[in-house]
Design a protein that fits this description.
four-stranded parallel β-sheet, eight-stranded mixed β-sheet, Rossmann fold, alpha/beta, 9 helices, 2 domains, single chain
Length: 343
């Protein structure tokens, strides 16, 4: 007889956890202890759902690495008690948070599904109920008493994504997220279907390792036509900076001005890694494909390939937090660790 999966629902904050007080017309925090009364459809799911919430809900804009650690602490402390986890958070920074959690949980063998909503759970046209119900259903999906999903995913508006491949693309549409460089892992329609060939497979011989050391001192250098030497120099000379994410044009192209290249060289000489990611929403960095990126390749700039900015930030924070040496950083960053890049 199959065991009924136990799912832990963790509310960190965000719109999905708000409900309208119709007397005052204001939004207030939803009591997730009453979730089955508010969403009776959950009783139809073939799983047990327990809930846990942050003492103080975190607005999406206030999400930070200290809360990432709090999330993985909860997962670590409850890992052996539950078969899957659903994380509710604000959508604005969900791709950053979910990407970070994917790196912080090594050898994951259970589902961690992020979801949220564009409208509060009590709103007439809310997307919260469907997102929440299906996220729990996905977390509870098993084959031969083993979880179907063994990675960090993001579920939103009928689509299941690899979390570290996502970007929020809309502030006012229900289809708020997209994975531009990687196919869907699953889709919810009349039936719940999965793209079997793309799903991670768990290694039964490896135990979960939780990584909690995150480096905060990194910066994004976004290029734009006419960016000045003073601006670039100011960014690259920020005190105690440990890593730079450089958003370039197209397939990784950047200005070839001597002052610009010299500033990059000086940063690299100070053993501060620079990762090149494209500003384009689709496609990949290909250093050396054009002359304007050949010099970047020559001086040792790291290729972010087809990684998202959100995932690149999380990966850099993770690797630097783990104390990876400058001489080893390029090889590790350019290698897929959690399916965050294609090759």
């Amino acid at each position: 007889m199959a065991n009924v999966p136990n799912i832990l629902l963790i509310y960190t904050g965000g719109t999905i956890g708000m409900i309208k007080d119709y007397k005052s017309n204001a939004l207030k925090a939803f009591d997730f202890k009453q979730i089955k009364e508010k969403i009776p459809e959950l009783k139809l799911l073939d799983c047990q759902v327990k809930t846990m919430a942050f003492d103080k809900p975190i607005d999406s804009s206030n999400m930070s690495p200290k809360y990432w650690v709090q999330i993985v602490d909860i997962i670590e402390n409850n890992y052996d008690k539950f078969d899957g986890f659903v994380i509710l958070s604000g959508t604005d920074t969900m791709s950053y948070t979910a990407s970070a959690i994917s790196f912080m949980l090594e050898n994951l063998s259970k589902p961690v599904i992020f979801t949220g909503s564009q409208l509060p759970i009590g709103d007439l046209r809310t997307d919260a109920k469907e997102n929440l119900i299906t996220a729990i259903q996905i977390a509870g999906t098993q084959v031969n008493n083993k979880p179907k999903i063994v990675e960090v995913c993001l579920y939103f508006e009928y689509k299941l994504y690899r979390a570290n491949r996502t970007t929020k693309v809309s502030a006012n549409q229900f289809e708020a997220f997209h994975s531009h460089n990687f196919p869907l892992l699953g889709e919810s329609g009349v039936h719940l279907t999965f793209n079997e060939a793309l799903l991670h497979k768990a290694n039964p011989n490896k135990r979960l390792i939780v990584r909690k050391r995150i480096e905060d001192n990194i910066v994004i250098l976004k290029l734009f036509p006419g960016i000045t030497k003073q601006v670039v120099k100011s960014i690259l000379n920020i005190p105690d900076i440990k890593g730079v994410l450089m958003e370039t044009y197209g397939s990784g192209n950047a200005p070839t001005d001597k002052w610009f290249i010299d500033l990059l060289k000086l940063t690299l000489n100070n053993k501060i890694p620079i990762v090149n990611v494209t500003q384009c929403i689709n496609g990949s960095v290909q250093l050396g494909f054009y002359e304007t990126s050949s010099i970047l390749k020559e001086i040792g700039i790291i290729s972010g390939k087809d990684i998202t900015t959100e995932s690149a930030i999380a990966k850099m924070k993770y690797l630097l937090g783990e104390g990876i040496l400058f001489k080893d950083f390029k090889v590790l960053f350019e290698k897929p660790l959690r399916g965050e890049m294609s090759y």
